[in-house]
Design goal:
Blueprint (H helix, E strand, L loop, with lengths): L8 H22 L4 E7 L2 E7 L3 H8 L4 H18 L6 E4 L2 H23 L3 E2 L5 H13 L3 E5 L6 E5 L4 H6 L11
Parallel strand pairs: 2-3
Antiparallel strand pairs: 1-2, 4-6, 5-6
Amino acid sequence: MVQDEERSVEQLDREADIAADYLEGLLDIADYEGDIEMGVRNGRPMVQIVADDDTDIKHLIGRNGEVVDALQQLCRLAVQQETGERSHLIVDVDGFLKRKRQILRDMALDAVDDVRETGEPVDLKPMNSFERKIIHDVVRDEGLRSRSHGEEPKRYVTIYLKRTDVDDEELEDDDEYIVED
């Protein structure tokens, strides 16, 4: 299957099933109690680990979500090994991603306010691609522009005022104002 082709709900459910089985095995090995919830959201398979024990859950989230990111990568590899296809599977632990999205949204809105007040670009701290995507989406929705700079793992987002016609003439050949990540 070509990467850009839209996958059917059955295919997405299968990816979630494969990931859920993989995560259940990992939880058994680590001797963690947790329930696995699966579904499809926004055209992507989603698997969430929910546990009653706050101690175990904190270990599955990790510092700044590092363990969640690692679990997601492992699950994507397990899905790819079984299906032969790359997956855009999302793994969440106890609603961590929802909380993270809100924090990033608030950060982006604060930066947008600063840019509007001063007219000057604002650089944010280095972020992973998931975090940068959320920032870019919020900035675009607010009518401003953003661009990622730097190399991983120190890639960061700069937020700019929307370009005017005068800016367009002055910055015609300047690629600094590309809005893509």
